[in-house]
């Protein structure tokens, strides 16, 4: 197995006023990375116009491009239409499922979706009480279970989980602790630790930190654009060499 | 007189829910008759819209728009996860 270079970013929040600007930063990405991953919040308001703008920015990239949507992309209830626009532009959009990308000799498996909140072990919501609280936690639990199943069923040399919400609180440091339950859930990390993966990428926490790890020792990277401060980060997985 | 904490909360809510902005995570501080906006956005027009929505939500306060526009720079150095 050779080394695989993963370019990743989240929370690019593109709007009409910055059309074309992000695309400029993607020039030459094929020389830097083998695959490009987007961790949600690609739009500001989740409108179809913004979704099409994002699709135009990502259209025809020379390396495989995988994306999940974020909470902003759901705001106008047009998430499926936005996903369709992205797929038409050649982007693989995950919705609590997975894909295997052949990259040279390496099979890269990517599992993921939006994720959701609930908080972190010891300080989190439970499926108890009002229906609204139970629905909130059950939504995260459903997603975590889907990721676990997808990871377990997947045959790949390397596995990456792509999420919008954070599986751990370590990469949220800098955000107010009071809003942690709305930034992610430990259920996501628990599911990935159970099934196994080589890397987890997420966004959502603009004021958080880039680096962390799950209780099971899986590396986690918060790739939100304001955290990275650059067009995308590149993470190299596997052995020395090039893909 | 309305407590400044409630005014700040109302402005923050407006920034998140107004169709022109939908921006979460903008910090709103009120000191006397002055309102400070802090945070990061992806474009200069979005920063101006946030200032406008904040002004409309609290018209009696002087708005100081200290929001930064994130400059998207070159990708930089790779990280090897051995």
From TrEMBL, chain A:
Keywords: Hydrolase, Metal-binding. Residues 4-207 form the Calcineurin-like phosphoesterase domain. InterPro entries: Calcineurin-like_PHP, Metallo-depent_PP-like, Metallophosphoesterase_sf, UCP008292. This is Metallophosphoesterase. It comes from Actinomadura luzonensis.
TrEMBL record, chain B:
PROSITE patterns: BON (PS50914). Pfam families: BON. Residues 3-71 form the BON domain. It comes from the Bacteria. InterPro entries: BON_dom. This is BON domain-containing protein.
């Amino acid at each position: 197995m050779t080394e695989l270079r993963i370019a990743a970013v989240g929370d690019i929040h593109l709007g009409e006023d910055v059309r074309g600007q992000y695309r400029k930063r993607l020039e030459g990405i094929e020389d830097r990375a083998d695959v490009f991953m987007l961790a949600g919040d690609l739009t500001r308001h989740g409108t179809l116009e913004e979704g099409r703008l994002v699709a135009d920015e990502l259209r025809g990239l020379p390396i495989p491009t995988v994306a999940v949507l974020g909470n902003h992309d759901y705001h106008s209830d047009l998430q499926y239409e936005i996903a369709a626009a992205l797929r038409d532009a050649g982007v693989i959009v995950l919705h609590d499922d997975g894909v295997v990308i052949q990259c040279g000799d390496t099979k890269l498996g990517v599992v993921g979706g939006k994720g959701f909140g609930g908080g972190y072990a010891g300080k989190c919501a439970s499926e108890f009480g009002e229906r609204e609280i139970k629905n909130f936690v059950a939504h995260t639990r459903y997603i975590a279970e889907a990721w676990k199943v997808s990871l377990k069923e997947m045959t790949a040399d390397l596995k990456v989980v792509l999420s919008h919400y954070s599986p751990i609180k370590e990469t949220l440091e800098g955000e107010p602790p009071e809003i942690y339950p709305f930034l992610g859930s430990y259920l996501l990390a628990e599911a990935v630790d159970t099934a196994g993966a080589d890397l987890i990428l997420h966004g959502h926490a603009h004021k958080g930190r880039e680096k962390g790890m799950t209780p099971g020792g899986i590396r986690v990277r918060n790739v939100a654009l304001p955290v990275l401060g650059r067009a995308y980060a590149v993470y190299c997985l596997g052995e020395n060499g090039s893909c | 007189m309305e407590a400044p904490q409630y005014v700040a909360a109302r402005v923050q809510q407006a920034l998140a829910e107004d169709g022109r902005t939908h921006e979460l995570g903008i910090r709103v501080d009120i000191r006397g008759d002055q309102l400070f906006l802090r945070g990061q956005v992806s474009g200069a027009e979005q920063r101006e819209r946030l200032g406008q929505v904040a002004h409309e939500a609290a018209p009696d306060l002087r708005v100081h728009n200290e929001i930064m526009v994130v400059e998207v720079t070159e990708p930089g150095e790779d990280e090897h996860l051995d």
